Amino acid sequence: MSIEDQIRTIAKVELSTEFEEIEARLKAACRKDNRQIREDLKGLTIKLEEFTVQMEDLHQRIEKLEEEMHNRWSLVVKLRKYTLDQLMSEYKRLTGQMRPELEESLENVET
Questions:
Q1: 99 lies in which domain range?
Q2: Structural domains of the chain, count
Q3: Which residues lie below 8 Å from residue 96, measured CB to CB, with a gap of 6+?
Q4: Nearest Cα to 96, choosing from 107, 84, 82, 81?
Q5: Which residues contact 9 (CB under 8 A, 6 or more apart)?
Q6: Do residues 94 and 102 touch, judged by C-beta distance below 8 A?
Q7: pLDDT of residue 49
Q8: Block means of pLDDT (10 residues each) for the chain, length 111 residues?
Q9: What pTM was computed for the model?
Q10: What whole-number distance in Å separates Cα of residue 10 and Cα of residue 18?
Q11: Which pLDDT does position 93 carry in this prediction?
């Protein structure tokens, strides 16, 4: 075997040993990173589930508030209509008392 072949063989052995060590360290680092990534993903999944529960709770609360607001608005509209009807009837009664002759002439015109 020539000196060049011996040098190549020695270099090949040295480099393959270093390469195997580097490869082993890289695999170990990847496994460690993979474990860390899995743990991070589990943590994020838990936080996402908690957030989803909070969002559902918030959605239910918003629906309840919207329903209450709708009910109150309906009540205001009914109260306004009732109050307006009362005011109109009171106005007609008062104008009838103040000017009965005008109301009589209006009734004659209507019939």
A1: 3-110
A2: 1
A3: 103
A4: 107
A5: 1
A6: no
A7: 95
A8: 82 83 89 90 94 95 94 88 85 76 62 58
A9: 0.49
A10: 12
A11: 81
For residues 103 and 96, the answer to whether their CB atoms sit within 8 Å is yes
Amino acid (one-letter) located at 58? L
Amino acid letter at 75? L
Cβ atoms within 10 Å, residue 17: 10
Q: SS3 string of the chain?
A: CCHHHHHHHHHHHHHHHHHHHHHHHHHHHHHHHHHHHHHHHHHHHHHHHHHHHHHHHHHHHHHHHHHHHHHHHHHHHHHHHHHHHHHHHHHHHHHHHHCHHHHHHHHHHHC
- 3-98 and 100-110 are packed helices; what angle lies between their axes, rounded to 10 degrees? 110
